[in-house]
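Rotation project, supervised by the postdoc (A.L.). Task for the rotation student: set up a whole-complex structure prediction and record inputs and outputs verbatim in this book. Inputs entered:
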Amino acid sequence: MKHGTKPRPPAGPELHGLLAEFDSPGALLTAAERVRDAGYTKWDTHSPFPVHGIDEAMGIRRTRLPWLVFVFGVLGCVTGLALQWWTNASDSREFSFLPAHLQGYAFEIGGKPLFSLPANIPVIFELTVLLAALATVIGMFAMNNLPRHHAPLLAQERFKRATTDRFFVFITAADPKFNATRTHHLLSGLGGSAVESVAASSEPAHLPRSLIYATTIVICLLLLPPLFVAKARFTKSAEPRIQLIRDMGNQERYKTQQVHALFVDNRAMRPQVPGTVARGDLRDDAHYYEGKVSGDWATTYPPQLEISESFVRRGQQRFNIYCAACHGLGGAGDGIVSQRALARDTPGWTVPTSLVNQTVIERPLGHIFNTITNGIRTMPPYGDQIPEQDRWAIIAYVRALERSQNAHLEDVPVELRPELR
Amino acid sequence: MAAAVGEVDNTIDIPGQRAALILGGHDFGSLTAAACAPWEAPRPPRAWYVAFTISVALLAVLGAMIFYLVFNGVGVWGLNNPAGWGFDITNFVFWVGIGHAGTLISAILFLFRQKWRTSINRFAEAMTIFAVICAGLFPGIHVGRIWLAYWLAPLPNQMGMWPNFRSPLLWDVFAVGTYATVSLMFWYVGMIPDLATFRDRAKTKWKQVIYGLLALGWTGSSRNWHRFERAYLILAALATPLVLSVHSVVSFDFAVSVLPGWHTSIFPPYFVAGAIFGGFAMVLTLAIPARALFGLKDIITPRHLENCCKILLLTGCMIGYAYLIEKFMAWYSGNSYEGFIFRARALGPYAWAYWTMIGCNVLAPQLFWFKWARTNLVAMFLVVMAVNVGMWFERFVIIVSSLSQDFLPSSWDIYHPSLVEILTLAGSFGLFLALFLLFCRFLPMIAMAEVKTVMPHADLHAHPHAHVAPHRAFDYNPDEFDAGRGGAAARRSPRGPS
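Outputs recorded:
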C-alpha cells in the first residue's frame, strides 16, 4: 500500500525536516547509503528493530560506551576493596580526627586475619558488576538523549508505525546541506513509499494537567518526612525521643508480690529452693564473712586481705562516711549526732562508745567486725550497707586511730623524733 | 490445555535448513499485532480473572502472615534450636534459583547466539524480577526485627558499627541486591522499544501518556539503536558472570559453614545447575498456559518448548550427578559425620523429603529423553510441576536435615513447620503470580523488536538491495555468525520447513 504524498511545497521557517518512509529494512539500507553519500550529516534512520548493516550504511561511528563501562567497573572494584578494608580492617585510632560514625573498625572475628582478599572477592565482584551495569544503562541513556521529553517526529501520524513495521529516513533542516527542494527530491528518488515534511512543533507536548498536579503534590508530601528528620537533627527537645518500635524496652513482666496463676502458691516471687545456694551467696568462709575462727572471735585479719596503706585509707574514707557521724572523726564518741542529742538533752540517749578506749582496744578484730555487721546493744547494724572487705578496712582504720591516740615515743620513727621535741 | 497435536510441528530438523522460529507466516505488522493482542484486547480472557483472583487472595494471605510475624516475632515460625533455618531460607534459595533461568535465557543464550531465546526472553526476565522479589522477601522478614534490616548495609551510623564483610550472609546481600538491580535494568532497557510500540499503538490518552513516559521518548533511531545494542551486549556480558556468582554466593551460605552436609566445595556449581534447572521448569510452567491463553502459539512454538525441555534434561542430569558425587564424597572422605548425614538424609526422619527430591529432580526429567515427552504438552507440564516440587524439596533437605542432626546427638531435634510458615510459602506464590499476571496484561510479554530481527523478513542477504560491508568488526548481530561461514545455504534457502 504505497500512497506517497504529493511533494508539498517546502514549508516556511518552522520546517523541522523531511521524513521518507520505506517498507523494508533492505530499502532503508539502500536509501541510507545514498543519503550518506550525498554528504548529509544531521540525519537519522528509524526502524522497529536494529537493522543489520545500518551502521556502515549511515556511517555511524562506534560508540565509546564500553570505555565508560570499563572505567566504572574499575571504580566498582576499587570501591569494593576500599570499603571492606576501611570498615573491617582499618585502625580507627589512626583516623580519630574523623567523626566517629565515619571511622573504620578493626573487626576481629574468631582470630581470623582482619584483611584477607579471598573473603573480600565476592563483594568486590558484585560492586564491579553493579557499577559497570549502572554505567552501561545511564551512559546509554545519556548518549542517546533519553529520556527525551518530546520529539517532533513523534507527533507525526505516519511515524507511529516506526515501532511496528515501517522504516524511515529523516533529514533535519539543521543539516548544512539541507535544501527543502533538493532534499525532497533526493528522498523521493530513494524508492520509499512516502515523503513528508515535519514541522517543528510550535507548542511543546505537555502532560495532562491532572498528572502534573498529582505528581507535584506527591513530591511535596514525600519531602515532609525528610524535612522533619532534618529539623530533629538540628534542634533540641526536652521531650524523650519518640520510639516507634520499642524493641525489648518495654516487655511484660511480673513485679514483686504480684499474683501468678502458674504456681500453686499463686505468688510471682519464687522462694529459694531448699538446700540450694543462689549464685554469689555461698559464704563458707567464717573468718572473712563472720569474723570467727573455729567459733571464737578472730584476732587476725582474714588471710586473703592485704593490709596496706591504701587499704587503711579506704577504711578511713568509709569510716568518715559511716561511723564518724556518731563516733566522731577521731573515734572519741563525740560525733555530731551525739553532740546534738546531748545538747538537746534527748532522753535515753546512749553516748557512742569511744573507739579509742581500752575496752575497744582489747576487743578482738572479729568482735568489732560483728559489731559493724549486726550492731551492738543500742548501735544499729551496718552489714547491709558496707561490704565485708570495707568492714575489714574500717577495722584497720579504727586500729590505726587507737594506736595514734595512745602513742608512745617509741612508736615514732627515730629520725622523726627530734621534730617532736 | 491442548497437546501439541494439531499445532505446526517445527521441532523437526531438516539438514541444510533452519527450522522456522516463528510460525503462522507473520510479517512485521501481523507479528506486532499478535504480540500486542493480549494488551490490546478490551479485556483479558476469563481464565486470567480466575487466576488473578486466586493470586490476589494468596497475596492477601502473605500480607497477613507477614503482619502477624512482624508483630509477634519469629517465634510464630517453627524454628528453634537446632534448626534455626527452615521454610524461610528454603523459600529464599528456591525463589532466587528460579530467577536464574530468566537471566540465563536473556544473557547467556544471547551470548551463545541462541536466536530462539527472543520469543521467551522477555517473560523469562519478568519471571526473574518477580522471583527475586519473592526471594528477597524471606531473608528480609526472617531477621526478626525487620526495621533494623538496614544494618545489613554499610551505612555510617551513630553506633560506629559496620557489617562483617567476611560473612557469606553479607555477600548474599550484595549478590542478591546487585542481581535484582541488574536484572531490573536489563529487563527495562530491553523493554523500551516495545514500550514505544505500545505508546504508538495506544488508543486512549492515558495509555499514551503512561507508555509515553515509560518509553522515554524512544524513536527507533538507528543512532540510538547502535548504542542500545552495545549497552544490551555489555549488560548480557555483565549479567552472565553475575548470575553464576549469585547462586554460588547463596551456596556459600552453607558451604562456608562447618556443618556436615553443607561444608562441601561442590556446592557452587551444584547450586547453579540446580537454579537453572528449577528456573527452566518455572519458565515452562508459565509459558505453557500463557501461550495458550494469550494466543502466542506462533511465537512461542513447540520448538521453543522442546529446547527448554532439553535444557531441563541436561541440568537434571547434572544435579543427579551432584547428588551422586555428594554421596561418594561422604563415603570417600571417611568423615563419619559426613557419612552419617547422608545416610540420615536417605533413611532418617527426612527420608520422605529426600526421595521426593530424587523422584522429582532426577527421575522425572528422564522422560525428556523421548521426543514425545518433549512435544506433548501434558507430559511436559507434569514433569515441570514435578521439578518445581523437587527443587523446593532439594533446598529443604539440604537445610533442615543438616541443621537438625549435626555433631552432637544430644542436641538433635526435628523441625516442624508451623501453619504460618506454610501459608507464607503459599502466599509467596500469590505474590509471584499476581505480578506475573499483571505483567502479561499490561507490559509487552514478547520482545517484539528482538523477535523481528530473527524473522526471515529482516534477513538482508535475501534482499536485492542488500549491501554487506566486507568487514564489520563491531555491532553484534547473531546473523553474522551464519553469514560468516556456511551461511550460504541459509541465505538461499527459504527458512523453515515448507
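Student's summary: Chain B touches chain A through 86 residues (CB under 8 Å).
Supervisor addendum: The two ends of chain B are 27 Å apart (CA to CA).
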